[in-house]
Amino acid sequence: MAIDDSTGTAARxxxxxxxxxxxxxxxxxxxxxxxxxxxxxxxxxxxxARVAERLTEWGYRVHAGVGGTGVVGVLANGDGxxxxxxxxMDALPVREDTGLPYASTATATDASGRDxxxxxxxxxxxxxxxxxxxxRLMAASPTSWxxxxxxxxxxxxxxxxxxxxxxxxxxxxxxxxxxVAFAQHVLPYPAGTLGxxxxxxLSAADNLKITVHGRGAHGxxxxxxxxxxxxxxxxxxxxxTIVSRELAATEPAVLTVGxxxxxxTGNVIxxxxxxxxxxxxxxxxxxxxxxxxxxxxxTAECDASRATRDPQYEEGGRFPPTVNDEAVTAExxxxxxxxxxxxxxxxxxxxxxxxxxxxxxxxGTPYTYWGIGCTDPDAYRAAERxxxxxxxxxxxxxxxxxxxxxxxxxxxxxxxxxxxLTRLARPExxxx
Length: 432
Known about the structure:
alpha+beta, eight-stranded mixed sheet, 26% strand
């Protein structure tokens, strides 16, 4: 059901957000605490416990342990639409190098049994804090809206299986079907800005591990070997031609070889070499074409090198594309413009990937996903003037990445509230 115009939504948001100054300091403390205590995917026990405790305190019906460590809070406030807001909770195996007084020094054991450093190098701690802030303010302003708010805190976005695990654990039986779903992510743009985009926003991602087989020998006798290092090297070079020579310039895709491993020492030619690669695409046709080209090139190079066995393929995690619903995005974009003014912008297409869309897709629910800037505005403008944004502004997953606390936090809370109120209007504010 359509509601009143974006100006009306912004006015109601002002009422709900009037309580933000009162809780700002507390939210900032929550963020610092989460940042200093990051947890890897499926290990978010501390984070989940703190989320569940706060949601319970604010009157939400809480489902904890969904899919392992997922938490969902449901706040029913009369008849009306159901709005789902999602934040991801997990951190990365990265050693933080930000110099912040609340920088992480945490370590953990990862899924393969390795001891690794852990840091919130992607900003999920900010996502959690923003959703907690929005959930608290909405609970404190029941006369400003009507319907049901679902606050979903998802584990394991980075490995790409957190949403699937929550769904497999009966998420759809624990919450009402959402009429619309929203999510946001911090991006390395000026803090205080935010960007929406209709249609394709984030790419799909496919991960492949390829093993090629040769014949080992002494490094001094290469004629006795079939060298898998050379074989792998030729494959890596040739793979770069898929995007540059097989796709049109208007058909975006990214293919990255992130790991090549073979052998143990310089004077021994090994039997095998391993290549790990990542493919990013925005539609199924392009995805199928790129993956088919990868296999064609690998097979051809192995044949040319007289490989002793066919190459082996091991598929890793796959992320779906994030394709924003046009009508929902237009509605939210208009509300953002009315509330934020010129700080609300159209976002560029992003080559990162997410598993958020699996949740609304499982419900058959339309969604929109937007970005919020998190970089110090003065530092960003200075880098723009120098033409060194790519070199000087840390990006997500960098050891130096950390959102500036404000105005990033306020903007994220405000965005979630404004988006929610595009649907959760009081009956007197709805129109046909």
